Amino acid sequence: MTKVLMVVTAADHWTLRDGEEHPSGYWGEELAMPHKAFSEAGWDITLATPGGKIPTLDKLSMSFTAGWPTTLREVARYLDSIQPQLHTPQRLQEMHPDEYDLVFYPGGHGPMEDLAFDPVSGALLTHVLRSGRPLALLCHAPAAALAAKNEDGSWPFRGYRMTGLSNLEERLNSFGRKAAWLLEDRLREYGADYVKGHIPLRPFTVVDRNVYTGQNPASSQQLARRLMADMRVAAR
After folding, report:
1. 25, containing H or E segment
2. Does Iron show up as a keyword for this record (predicted)?
3. Where in the chain are the domains?
4. What is the pLDDT of residue 26?
5. With contact defined as beta carbons under 8 Å apart, do 206 and 213 qualify?
6. Of 90, 124, 150, 214, which residue is the least packed, with the fewest Cβ within 10 Å?
7. DSSP H helices in the chain
């Protein structure tokens, strides 16, 4: 059975440039839709957060501005069905990445607050990157890669072709204009080969070696399908 480690932010806010703590957490669609796809395929999913803290759903991700009503209803139903797992996450510090076939990070603004600076998560990402096993980061979750370091202090993702929420997409939110830093800018600064889709808020995924990234919430299902297809081929 394919085993998935899903690493979810434990943050419940995002600190803006002026010090305001904007309520945040994980983005509903980005956790629910890949989790649903993997579960329906019979994959075993372990959910972990820093410290084993119960993750916070970003309420904005369930608002009418977050997507199509049919999708939001599906997300709400699915999140409700996995509440027992969401309320009992494993401690990220106790996870052994070699026990999993895939490591998947859903986004939301939360990773910009905690995972981007988390040395435990950074070490896990560095290890999985070197292992060659699939590693997926969705929307804001590529921020977690910023915490990864080689022994010499260099960034292991340097030169990798990656995507993530673009500056334009971030600034479509009024509070996004007050961000202390933007993901697209930071990935470029660190040395990623950042790319984005031609149309904002539309599905766009990138694969470079074993690193899979999705640009935005709309990329959730596309990213999950690509992972599943590639892993089925690799298993033959």
Report:
1. none
2. no
3. 3-235
4. 98
5. yes
6. 150
7. 28-40, 69-81, 83-86, 110-113, 119-131, 167-170, 183-190, 220-235
- Specify the residue for token string 């808020």: 201
- Both structure tokens of 75: 């997300």
pTM: 0.97
Amino acid present at 202 = R
DSSP, collapsed to helix, strand or coil, labels residue 90 as strand
d(CA 219, CA 213): 9
Closest CA to 138 of 79, 80, 203: 203
CATH code of domain 3-235: 3.40.50.880
The pLDDT tens digits for 67-116 are 899 999 999 999 999 999 999 999 999 999 999 999 999 999 999 999 99
- List b or e across 148-161, with b for residues whose CB sees 16 or more CB atoms inside 10 angstroms: beeeeeebbbeebe
For residue 65, pLDDT over 90 is answered with no
